[in-house]
Write a sequence for this structure.
């Protein structure tokens, strides 16, 4: 490996760690990881939809986020560990809202 590759790799790793630290500094609550289980209810070309047990909701994720050694099928059970979502600020991200409005105008 060339030295320039190692430098870029280290910079990326550093930026990821710094971003995580910034987010952690904004959060008020520590990790409370919970295990959730669900059933695959939809398999598309690039996404998988899961209905969580216990009426905990529905989640659609890209296939690349699924760890699996065999073909995905509707009805298979899945599990994940996650924490609760925490709102980081009372402020609205105006740039994101603007992008959503532009997308709606285009008909997307």
């Amino acid at each position: 490996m060339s030295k320039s590759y190692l430098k870029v790799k280290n910079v990326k790793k550093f930026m990821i760690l710094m971003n995580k630290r910034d987010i952690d500094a904004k959060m008020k609550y520590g990790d409370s990881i919970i295990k959730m289980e669900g059933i695959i209810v939809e398999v598309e070309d690039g996404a998988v939809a899961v209905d969580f047990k216990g009426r905990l909701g529905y989640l659609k994720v890209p296939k690349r986020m699924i760890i699996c050694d065999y073909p995905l099928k509707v009805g298979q059970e899945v599990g994940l560990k996650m924490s609760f979502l925490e709102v980081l600020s009372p402020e609205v991200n105006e740039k994101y809202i603007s992008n959503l409005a532009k997308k709606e105008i285009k008909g997307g």
User: Anything to note?
Assistant: The longest strand covers residues 34-43. DSSP finds two helices and four strands in the chain. Residues 3-26 form the longest helix (24 residues). The CA atoms of residues 50 and 59 lie 5 Å apart.
